[in-house]
Amino acid sequence: MSSSPSPSGTGPVTDPAPLSLCAREPHVPADRLVAEMVPPPRFDSVRFSTYIPDPNQPSQTEAVRALEGFAAGLGGDGGAGRRRLFGFGRAAKKAPAGPRGVYLDGGYGVGKTHLLASLWHATPAEPALKAFGTFVELTNLVGALGFQQTVRTLSGHRLLCIDEFELDDPGDTVLVSTLLGKLVDAGVALAATSNTLPGKLGEGRFAAADFLREIQGLSAHFRALRIDGEDYRHRGLPEAPPPYSDAQVTATARATEGASLDSFSTLLEHLARVHPSRYGALTDGIKAVCLTGVRPVPDQSTALRLVVLADRLYDREVPVMASGVPFDQLFSDEMLNGGYRKKYFRAISRLTALARDAGTLPTGR
Questions:
Q1: DSSP 3-state assignment of 153?
Q2: Separation CA 353–CA 365 (nearest Å)
Q3: I want to staple 75 with a disulfide (CB 3.0 to 4.6 A). Which of 124, 127, 217, 302 is the partner?
């Protein structure tokens, strides 16, 4: 073993043997899969009070007011709370025939996820009675538990929040729409944001009319809340920082407590053997991910698995240091122009952000 200066400058520390994601084969019980459906760490502290509406965009203030009322209407026990949906806290004599869900309609960078997480936090119910996850996490839950078990597991919830409802796969859209229909029948309230459809990536927003049309029979259960505002995010491919050398990546893995070190090709092979619903558990305790030999992904199935891993790492704010090609060269032009391109753009953006975070690691730039 070798020694290196402590990041705090307090003296030398013995380099620990780095961890390996490929050595992990997590088996996640169903109750953990559901228990982990909460806002990701970067949205732990958000609340309606921390959302600062643009005074030039009155729809932002109206959205906060409506969501606060929606959350208040979910209080109480069982049916009593459900009878107050959209009643802004005033109990009605019977359940309304109107919407039991909200759809946040707005462009990138207007704070839809912030508001969705704030709704989860504001809903007066125990965390075990609320669920928050992305569309991909929800489909992965169905894949892990089966459709009927997922219905039984979520039917007792008061609220289900779905971030980034994806409409680029008709089969998944029908699956989730059917699931949500069952949950609405059981009295579960819904809230959702969505991604753009293929061909609308550059528009920066997804129209509520399109969302409601795509989910067809479920549309009557949603009230659309328009959130106008400027898009402060980069809409194109962000420029990824230059890669490190293999030696730099390896040295950082050895100098960073809780870091993992894997060959990119080996990791991709390992992801094929682990169900995507377990990718969160795969990263348990990991403080940094170090990868050697990053290269363009060879096929779409591999690419989609990598997208899920990127989401889990981003949710957990785990920096990624890599050698090989930059992250903006991961996906082919054909992939970036295909039906799943919104996912690939998101993965590039998130991995690029995590690669920049890697600059704070012991041997980072």
A1: helix
A2: 15
A3: 124
